[in-house]
Specification:
- The chain has helices at 37-43, 85-91, 114-122; strands at 9-15, 21-28, 67-69, 138-147, 158-169, 173-184, 190-201.
- It is mainly β and 215 residues long.
- The protein has two domains: 1-33, no CATH class; 35-212, Hotdog Thioesterase (Thiol Ester Dehydrase, Chain A), CATH 3.10.129.
- The chain is globular, with a radius of gyration of 19 Å.
């Protein structure tokens, strides 16, 4: 949607050629931008029932330890992301000089594009050791990136802290929502934040009670 002059919040949508919606998002500038799309979605979550795959997860649970991460241009960012930042910049649809040239902005280093923030945020997520039962197939269902005192910089080291902020379920999926806060390397100043809804498919877990799976 095209925002009105002076607006601090707008909606973004993507559709297939036949008009089928495939994505909905909100974009806002703070701090007085009102409720984000994911904040509204979380507020309407159906309380989780008797979870199976996530039975050992609790709201308020935190990661096992602080995690240190950084992103260099040619760094391999884990098995889930078979491309580097440099690879991404070759095909990015909206390139900016500040993504590759530290002299193009006031920060002294290139900045991490918004679409690569989740890659950085998930680089060390296995170290959080959240007790999600395995084997099971998961997917990223919702994502929100928030800059607090950003942007994030290429080659800069950040300390990550994770917390479970919601648990929910639908007929086919159990969900856990993780808020990851990005701090400077000293762990004192928060720079950014990521809210990610992980969906785990019930039918992918071999020990899921058959009578509780949807037909």
């Amino acid at each position: 949607d095209r925002p009105a002059p002076g607006a601090t919040r707008t909606m973004c949508r993507a559709f297939k050629e036949d008009g089928t919606p495939v994505l909905e998002a909100s974009a806002s500038i703070g701090p007085d931008h009102g409720e984000t799309l994911l904040e509204a979605r979380m507020a309407k979550l159906r309380p989780a029932g008797d979870l199976v795959i996530l039975a050992d997860m609790k709201v308020g649970m935190t990661g096992a330890a602080d995690e240190m991460v950084s992103m260099d241009p040619d760094q391999h960012m884990g098995n889930l992301y078979p491309f580097s930042l440099a690879d991404k910049l070759k095909v990015i649809t909206e390139p900016m000089d500040v993504y590759s040239d530290g002299a193009a902005g006031p920060w002294g280093k290139p900045i991490v594009p918004l679409e690569m923030v989740s890659v950085l945020g998930n680089y060390s997520n296995r170290n959080s050791k959240f007790p999600v039962k395995q084997p099971a197939i998961g997917l990223f269902a919702d994502l929100e990136i928030r800059m607090v005192d950003g942007p994030l910089l290429v080659g800069e080291t950040y300390l990550l802290r994770r917390e479970v902020v919601a648990l929910s379920e639908s007929r086919r999926v159990e969900n856990y929502w993780i808020r990851t806060r990005f701090f400077d390397a000293a762990g004192e100043k928060q720079v950014a934040e990521m809210l990610l809804n992980h969906g785990v498919m019930k039918a992918s877990y071999p020990h899921y009670p058959a009578d509780r799976l949807p037909a």
